[in-house]
Specification:
It is built from three helices and four strands. It has helices at residues 3-29, 62-68, 116-153; strands at residues 45-50, 82-87, 93-96, 108-111.
């Protein structure tokens, strides 16, 4: 078994989950910023991940991926999951604050459309998934070291 492939899978998973943590933290940090009229204001982000399959084969089902196992990494055109960030398009959160300097005619201030509860859930889920990838990498490392020990004593 080629342990480098197992390490690559875990590393790709950790990279995706780190991106999720970074984006959730960024959204939470900017949750109380005011939506302005110019294009330089913060826009809430979301992480989109996508795994690609070999050319012309379409996306295989989960059962197909299990049957292929790690050998799927050898097929041409297969890549590990990649994460990208894009604007979430969330509507601004309108808060009634008539004394605020940025309040509109009706007394409402437009804050970023960040839901703190869902961002915290995303953050905790990403942390747990990151921990799972670390555990998988440590298991693969332990297995490879044991294989070296067995091979070295014969």
């Amino acid at each position: 078994m080629d342990y480098a492939r197992a390490f690559a899978i875990s590393a790709a998973g950790m990279a995706v989950e780190r991106t999720r943590v970074d984006v959730a933290a960024l959204n939470l940090a900017n949750a109380n910023t005011i939506v302005g009229g110019n294009a330089t204001t913060f826009q809430p982000l979301r992480v989109v991940t996508q795994a690609t399959a070999p050319m012309g084969s379409g996306l295989p089902s989960f059962a197909d991926r299990i049957e292929e196992g790690l050998d799927a990494l050898d097929s041409p055109g297969f890549t590990l999951p990649q994460a990208r960030t894009e604007a979430s398009g969330a509507q601004p959160r309108m808060v009634y604050e008539p004394g605020h300097p940025f309040a509109d005619d009706k007394g409402f201030v437009a804050y970023q459309g960040v839901d703190a509860a869902s961002e915290m859930v995303t953050l905790m889920g990403a942390l747990r998934a990151y921990e799972a990838n670390v555990a998988a990498m440590n298991t693969a490392r332990t297995l490879s070291l044991k294989a070296l020990d067995i091979g070295g004593t014969s």
